[in-house]
Amino acid sequence: MRILLLSMPDSFEHTPVLTVRMPNGALASLAGNADPHHRIAIADLVLAQSSVRATVERLVHELQPELVGLSVMTFQRGTARRIISFIRSLLPGVRIVVGGYDPSLAPAAWTHPDLGVDFVVRGEGDLTFRDLLRALEGRLPLSEVPGLWHRDGSTVHHNAPRPVASIESGTVRPPNRAARVLSGYTMLGRPIDVVETSRGCTFDCSFCSIIEMRGRNFHRFSIARVLDDIADARARGARAIFFVDDNITIDVPRFEALCRAIIDAGLNDIDYIVQGMTAPIAAHGATLAPLMKKAGFRYVFLGIENVIDDDLAFLQAREKNSRREGGRRTGNATADAIEVLHRHGLLVVGGLIVGNPDDTADAIETNLAFARKYVDWPYIQHPTPYPGTPMTRAFVERGLVVNSRVEEYDGTTAVTRSAHLKADDIEFMRWKAERWMKLRHLPSALRHDPVFVLRHGRRMLAHTFRGTTWRSALGLESARSAFHRYRAIRSRERDYMDWPDSLPDLSILDASGEGEGEPVVVQRRARR
Ligand code: B12
Ligand code: SF4
Q1: Ligand 2 centroid vs 207 CA: distance in angstroms?
Q2: CA distance 380 to 149
Q3: Which of 45, 129, 175, 478 could be 9's S-S partner, Cβ–Cβ 3.0 to 4.6 Å?
Q4: What is the pTM of this model?
């Protein structure tokens, strides 16, 4: 079968396409797990952000796909719908499957007959997609593909959920990067790829989609498989690798073993980026951080979330950020984690969430001051009501969601207000502070990637300070004016696909985002 797999072009403020264009790991994994006789092409549309329609048209023309699959996050829903409508206009008989976080957690948003979606894959897709292809070839009834919703005329059948894969036993085969048909992946000029070493998380943060997606569990790929995967990415040119694990720091001894294996295999000439929790890094940093440095790690994305205890409690993120002595909580682990990473020459990308329900201006300023002082690159977001998360329910119950346009749910657009502040004020505070924090990182980027930064430094600055003019820089007009210009630019940027949506209303999701309330996985959230 001829298959075209697409990831969406929509990017967000902290990963501008000038400096960061990463492949979507899901699509290469789907291609790696399909039976080998299929002809699969993967196109990450972030590589063609300024020519989405022309690129899709060319690919459809060249490949004449019988099945098109789209990987979609919630803020990309509108673009995905337009792309589907466009593809249907070119190939009316093509079959369409959607997967990823939005179709998994808000499947009801994908079932309207006018949208033209035939199949929704919920949860992990590797084996479901493989089985869907087998079913379309007549080797299996569609009703026997767990994890699949499938259309039959006006009826959508909901198959049983698929249990999470026990990846330790090798059921999920390695990704197929050779299927990618576009080029230009970059991290500040270095070719970048993504690698998975584990899946899942056993924590329960209220803002995170991962638990609704797959339950609370943690599964590890073998270290030998991970090394092969890194070597494959490297052989295809990668000089930077993002480990897309949900939470690699769940098992620190294994993470340390992985660092040693990377060093022993001589794969430590790559810049690695990883995300992790503060508590295990603070507790094990003395041995972990030097190993990470030696293995080639450069950036550690730390899920700090918030430095105020009440906010951490709301985010259900207190546990993972606790410093402990003798089993007793003795405070927040963030400063210790940052200190040990810095001591060993690693850079901290600081993930914080400001604008929580009871946040005041002082609470937000406390977090911004912390970021200013401690983090190398700020990754500050606003609470965003993604489908199915406990946080979404809390915001809905308190009537604090002020924006239901899901295409703006990109994390840096405030779509919720707090009991004390308007959404606009929350976003303004973050935006105003963050630009200067980003500016401070420029010398470090220049030292590491001088050619790229010298060549693109002006455009990088222009992106960071979008909306600012000489008048605002000189204080001749208010920062608010610059902010409103920035918002207008951001709003225009979101129009990635020059084609109408087949349904006018993007927000057909119910307020709680619960889809039809059916679990994605068999193992459901066990509340602490
Ligand atoms: C790595 C990652 C990133 C990387 C992206 C690298 C890349 N290009 O892939 C970076 C750091 C850049 C990033 C950025 C963002 N991310 Co992010 N990210 C993740 C993370 C940690 C892992 C995703 C991953 O690659 N997993 C490994 C792959 C193999 O698994 P998978 O994606 O789940 O795919 C499987 C299934 O979903 C399914 N599937 C997926 N697509 C498809 C398509 C088809 C056709 C089929 C059949 C199946 C299928 O099958 C796959 C294989 O089993 C997740 C989860 C988490 N714990 O936080 C968040 C997550 C996906 N990100 C999220 C978001 C919102 C963002 C941002 C908007 C920022 C933000 N506010 O948090 C930006 C936007 C990025 C952009 N395009 O500009 C949300 C999505 C929530 C939602 N409902 O949409 C998540 C779930 C985190 C969360 N907040 O809960 N992200
Ligand atoms: S620790 Fe990270 S991956 Fe785990 S639930 Fe919290 S935010 Fe999600």
Answers
A1: 9
A2: 35
A3: 45
A4: 0.96
